[in-house]
Amino acid sequence: MKPHKHPEHTDNIWLALEIGNSRLHWALFVGETLYSAWDTGHLPESVIQHLAECQTLNDLLEKIFPQGESLTDILPLCPLLVASVVPSQTAIWQTYPNTRVITLDQVSLKGVYPTLGIDRALALWGAGKTWGFPMLVIDAGTALTFTAADANECLVGGAILLGLGLQFATLGQQTGQLPLVEMQDFVSLPPRFPLNTTGAIQSGVVYTILAGIKDFIEAWLQLFPNGKIAMKGGDRTLLLNYLRTLYPKIAAPLIVEPNLIFLGMREIVMGDSTDEIK
């Protein structure tokens, strides 16, 4: 979604940035309302330092979303909240004025362990506070992750494995004779038992990932029959379509929302506002 018009209540605008392994994910909020969200590639340090020299929000948006339309009114720079899983990028973005880096201790989940990724914690917190706990979040991104919390908002745990793209890339790059398979080469479910190497790779990766997702969902619902499940990540649409074809009952209850991390960041901002009122 592109920023395109002047939002109302401009005194309460803030910008959110999720620094992922593959891309930068942006969101513009007006108070509690997610006004616009978009993605860019990672930016070189020189570009980020140049952004720190922007005088208005309009200037900044034009540079981080060059194809988007400008806001109609000139708006001052707003706070930037950053959640990052790339430490080198985190340090660079802290040169931008009025930046706040969200850390794990600011997420009110109970029972978290120190190395839990901030992206997983925020996505789970955002999903649970929006749709209710117990909540399982499936993030189909560079890594495929499962992260869950119970009705008391306490971390149950989760799992991490290579995502679709990484599995294909690993087979292509770390073996002597296997070809590199591009994900865009197929949009529908591949044959289960193909008679060629490329098809065999597609089958092996896709069907084992789908079986793994199915197994985790079934295990989750055994533990929490009334538990909810939300899905995000760049491969969410592809995997959801596959699941609907192969396991329609498993796919039916899935909540698909790409902006779960931003919803988690919003909860933190809302909590800060409540504390100020008190």
From TrEMBL:
<protein>
    <recommendedName>
        <fullName>Type III pantothenate kinase</fullName>
        <ecNumber>2.7.1.33</ecNumber>
    </recommendedName>
</protein>
<comment type="similarity">
    <text>Belongs to the type III pantothenate kinase family.</text>
</comment>
<feature type="binding site">
    <location>
        <begin position="18"/>
        <end position="25"/>
    </location>
    <ligand>
        <name>ATP</name>
    </ligand>
</feature>
<keyword id="KW-0963">Cytoplasm</keyword>
<feature type="binding site">
    <location>
        <position position="139"/>
    </location>
    <ligand>
        <name>K(+)</name>
    </ligand>
</feature>
<feature type="binding site">
    <location>
        <position position="113"/>
    </location>
    <ligand>
        <name>substrate</name>
    </ligand>
</feature>
<feature type="binding site">
    <location>
        <begin position="117"/>
        <end position="120"/>
    </location>
    <ligand>
        <name>substrate</name>
    </ligand>
</feature>
<feature type="binding site">
    <location>
        <position position="142"/>
    </location>
    <ligand>
        <name>ATP</name>
    </ligand>
</feature>
<keyword id="KW-0479">Metal-binding</keyword>
<keyword id="KW-0173">Coenzyme A biosynthesis</keyword>
<dbReference type="InterPro" id="IPR004619">
    <property type="entry name" value="Type_III_PanK"/>
</dbReference>
<keyword id="KW-0067">ATP-binding</keyword>
<comment type="function">
    <text>Catalyzes the phosphorylation of pantothenate (Pan), the first step in CoA biosynthesis.</text>
</comment>
<comment type="pathway">
    <text>Cofactor biosynthesis; coenzyme A biosynthesis; CoA from (R)-pantothenate: step 1/5.</text>
</comment>
<feature type="binding site">
    <location>
        <position position="197"/>
    </location>
    <ligand>
        <name>substrate</name>
    </ligand>
</feature>
<dbReference type="GO" id="GO:0004594">
    <property type="term" value="F:pantothenate kinase activity"/>
</dbReference>
<feature type="active site" description="Proton acceptor">
    <location>
        <position position="119"/>
    </location>
</feature>
<keyword id="KW-0547">Nucleotide-binding</keyword>
<keyword id="KW-0630">Potassium</keyword>
<comment type="subunit">
    <text>Homodimer.</text>
</comment>
<dbReference type="Pfam" id="PF03309">
    <property type="entry name" value="Pan_kinase"/>
</dbReference>
<keyword id="KW-0418">Kinase</keyword>
<dbReference type="InterPro" id="IPR043129">
    <property type="entry name" value="ATPase_NBD"/>
</dbReference>
<keyword id="KW-0808">Transferase</keyword>
